[in-house]
């Protein structure tokens, strides 16, 4: 009973998080059934670090100070339950188990309930930032029992990324609030990644712009209000030559079939359940799915050609327009995701404070971007803001860039390049700012064929009409 913190699962993420804690003076113990991984933790540690790796659950639990704080970093799903069951015989009332993986949030609710019944506090905590983030400062999204969080707080605040000295971690809410927030983070991540990919595609395939020019563009953007981790790494990717074959840019030789582990899909699926429209996240998930049908796409490319029509835009104007359109779309993507969190927080009684979410997303995580500070300010000005588009400052910036978004969509249509996220971001904007929508006609149709009734704008009540 001498170690401050325990970790189960000593893959690179688990190891790096422990070493990060050890850097900050905490003593840490790790458990992995794989003896090599357990040993590698101690090998990677320095003299000043107090670390211990083991392969035995019972002696591992005995190493940790009470009330124990133990994190699991194992694959989501059955492995999480298996590890919990293997620890349970040795855990005591008041101990805390933190699941640091991308678990499906209903699983977290179930685990919270099962473990609270035994007096053990269970936390679902999203961790973002990849291997480097884990080692030098991730963004962390914990949810669970608020008073139990105090045991974890000093450790998590020490290891988190810092922005203006403030740690990118905070208690988010009860139950699965943390996992849910990380799930939506990933949905936004999918959409921004796709937005960047569409920018690249429109320039390269639509306008024949050279790789070097596109590289420079992303580099310039990263020194502007578009500065963000994903834009930054894209500029790096566009510089990386293939060292193995020496044939030039590695990107040109990477297969265009995209994979996914499910968090983006869950974001869209749950958004539909709670009626939170996130069309750009849906589109990003669907584009990865379409990419899978390579053979069919090759056949269709021959059967359904479209060469595009000439446009008279010069390269400088094109790049400037894209920049504004990118800003516009980016804000609309975050607006969709944050609005989903707003709706989910009410639906599941999470008690999320969106200012805090924006705050801990400013650093460490994959979707960190300078615009997050603008979002934080918007939520600071209005704690109950349902949608970022209703913030006056952001509305002005989005208003000023909307024409560029319209122009980019038109250009893409003329070139036959798919820009689903640009298009859905614009369609979301245009529907959200529509005082009236043609859904009156939908209601009339429903009543026509199914007697589903409708409300009127001029008289209270519920109506049905014999239409023919
Ligand atoms: C992060 C990431 C990470 C995620 C991967 C892969 O915040 O560090 O979101 O948690 O697992 O990016 O996601 P896909 O395989 O679904 O693209």
Automatic annotation (TrEMBL):
Recorded metabolic or biological pathway in which this protein acts: Carbohydrate degradation; pentose phosphate pathway; D-ribulose 5-phosphate from D-glucose 6-phosphate (oxidative stage): step 3/3
Recorded catalytic activity of this chain's protein: 6-phospho-D-gluconate + NADP(+) = D-ribulose 5-phosphate + CO2 + NADPH
Class in the EC hierarchy, top level: oxidoreductase
Keyword Lyase: no
A Pfam family of this chain: NAD_binding_2
E.C. number: 1.1.1.44
Membrane-spanning intervals of the chain: none
Domain of life: Bacteria
Matches recorded under InterPro entries: 6-PGluconate_DH-like_C_sf, 6PGD_dom2, 6PGDH_C, 6PGDH_Gnd/GntZ, 6PGDH_NADP-bd, NAD(P)-bd_dom_sf, Pgluconate_DH
Domain 6-phosphogluconate dehydrogenase C-terminal: residue ranges: 178-468
Assembly description: Homodimer.
Family: Belongs to the 6-phosphogluconate dehydrogenase family.
PANTHER family: 6-PHOSPHOGLUCONATE DEHYDROGENASE
Protein name, entry field: 6-phosphogluconate dehydrogenase, decarboxylating
Annotated organism of origin: Neptunitalea lumnitzerae
